[in-house]
Amino acid sequence: MALALMVFSENFKIQIIMKNCIKDKSSAEFDIVSLGEVMLRLDPGEDRIRTARNFRVWEGGGEYNVARGLKKCFGLRAGLVSAFAKNEVGYLIEDFIMQGGVNMDFVKWVKADGAGRKVRNGLNFTERGYGIRGALGCSDRGNSAASQLKPGDIDWESLFGDRGVRWFHTGGIFAALSETTGEVVLEAAKAAKKHGTIVSYDLNYRPSLWADIGGQARAVEINSEIAKYVDVMIGNEEDFTACLGMKVEGLDENISKIDVEAFKEMIKNAVKKYPNFKATATTLRKVKSATLNDWSAICWCGGNFYESKKRENLEIFDRVGGGDSFASGVIYGMMELGDPQLAVDYGAAHGALAMTTPGDTSTARLEEVKRLAETSAGARVIR
User: Fold this and answer.
1) 87, 100, 146, 276: which has the fewest C-beta neighbours closer than 10 Å?
2) What is the residue range of 255's domain?
């Protein structure tokens, strides 16, 4: 009985910590706003990019996917900060975003030059992979409108001050797009904190994006500064080592496997370095093949670690966007449920469901996530 009371007391304390930090719905127009680039994804289906004659198209972007998931699956009020070239490709991406229900009032539209010499919209060719053939991405995003955003382009005072935002999300992919986008993230995060908005950040390290703007040294420099304004940090072991200079014992250069206890020690060191972190979260994925992964997740909050259900041999249809759907589930659990255990369970369940369908964005519904997260239900027919 004493142990049960102690556990209840600890969980209650953590719920109070999270709830007291998050604005009430009545005080903000948006529950979630994401800052990031949205590209047009071209999917060759079962074919290879190099041999395909037909492509299906979707919209997608690491930061945007989180906001869309929180709108379409979890029913929250979502907005996007981004930029597009004003042409037919931009209008196609806009149409996808409108289908997802994400507000675009803070999207900057830039006059197109007709050839993409000065500005364009990003394209992302992505193979899903199968069996021993891994997923493959080939981005074509140079000179994109989003990559040219710079401090002063967005009226953050209007967004965070006048209209109000409960939770702001962005990440390392957007920060790495150009010399200026990292500064935009810092500007946004500072404005969010000024107005009492929770800030989450997905480190999402991509070496190819950082290569021409200073490499890993620049990644550590800019991400370490951004981290000072982050409440909820999301990232795996590679992200923390490459972006924040943290060390994980027993981690090889290929990040082939990780000791969970060693990862926990790294997180403890991270929160000592950044006492502003209220929570951290990451997925734990062991890739057996492109279509078979072990999948789980872990969350640190209020000095305690919470682990999701472990799903061994999870069958994967399309892994792209699984981590973003995990992030949206975690945010929902923190913001609406105030419970870190439910947050990591909802995140892992939402990520798992998202990887059963094609495209970057989730097609799951809240009742599906809840059923998978809170019960031992399998894939029986639902009637």
Assistant:
1) 276
2) 2-374
Half-sphere exposure of 30 (CA within 13 A, CB side): 30
Note whether 121 and 144 are within 8 A (CB).
Answer: yes
Contact indicator for 14, 301 with CB cutoff of 8 Å? yes
How confident is the model over 222-275, as pLDDT tens digits? Answer: 999 999 999 999 998 889 999 999 877 666 554 545 668 888 988 999 999 999
Contact 362, 73 (CB under 8 A): yes
- For the chain, the straight-line distance linking the first and the last C-alpha, in angstroms and rounded, comes to 41
Burial label, 6 (beta-carbon count in 10 A; 0-12, 13-18, 19+): exposed
Q: Which of 199, 200, 201, 197 is nearest to 165 (CA)?
A: 197
- pTM comes to 0.93
Count of alpha carbons within 13 angstroms of residue 212, beta-carbon side: 6
Q: Is residue 281 part of a domain?
A: yes
Round to whole Å and give the CA distance between 351 and 348. 5
Furthest CA-CA distance within the chain = 71
Could you say which DSSP state residue 163 is in?
A: I
40: enclosing H helix or E strand? strand 39-43
Number of domains in the chain: 1
